[in-house]
Amino acid sequence: MAATKEDRRIRRTKRLLKQGLAEMMNEKEFKDITVKDITEKADLNRGTFYLHYSDTYDLLRKVEDEILQDFQNMIDKYAQNIDSENPSLLPVLSPIAGYVIENIDICKSLFNNRASTDFTEKFQQLISRNGASFINKQYPGASIENYEYFFSFITCGTVGIIKKWFESDPMKPKEEIVVMTAKIIRAAANSMLKS
Fold first, then answer.
1. Residue 195: helix, strand or coil by DSSP?
2. CB-based contacts of 62, cutoff 8 Å, min separation 6
3. pTM (2 decimals)?
4. CB contact at 8 A, 25 and 113
5. Contact criterion met (CB below 8 Å) for 140 and 163
6. HSE of 162, CA atoms in CB hemisphere, 13 A
7. CA separation for the pair 77, 115 (Å, rounded)
């Protein structure tokens, strides 16, 4: 029972530190953020921070890795249930968009981040790496060169859609963004990859 309470407290502490980081990243450049800034936002002491992270870059890396792993888990779940006869991207795009909304502060900070660890590039690699098997099944005759151009276009375009979505006021409904993104990906694939 005591271990469960401790685990809950640790999760809560880490969540507060991540939220503090997200709030600070909306206020100033990451390179200018200090541990003191984050702990003041989180209403925690610096010693608590150092129990979990070595510095601000360590916290940022772990936040990025956690979010990318969550995205990967959603993609893996989609891959298990994909209809190979009539594949749709909606079952994977919808939970990812929902996750972005639920974690809007940190996602907004990460997609707009210009820190040395580049979340956007890692996100693009995730899309490219996971999209390979889908594209190979749907467009088996596509040339490698066209394939590379397609993924460059799609990954940059997806990040662009997410950033634009963050800027829109009010934010467009998740469903509209998901459907629009799926249509753009399908149209680009049909245009660039069909033999």
1. coil
2. 53
3. 0.83
4. yes
5. no
6. 24
7. 31
Residues 47 and 70: their CA atoms lie apart, in Å, by 28
Note the pLDDT tens digit of each residue in 129-183: 888 777 777 788 888 888 889 999 998 999 999 999 999 888 999 999 999 999 9
User: What does the alpha-carbon distance between residue 116 and residue 135 come to, in Å, rounded to a whole number?
Assistant: 31
Q: What is the 3-state secondary structure (H, E, C) of 130-158?
A: HHHHHHHHHCCCCCHHHHHHHHHHHHHHH
Residue closest to 23 by CA, chosen among 42, 51, 47: 42
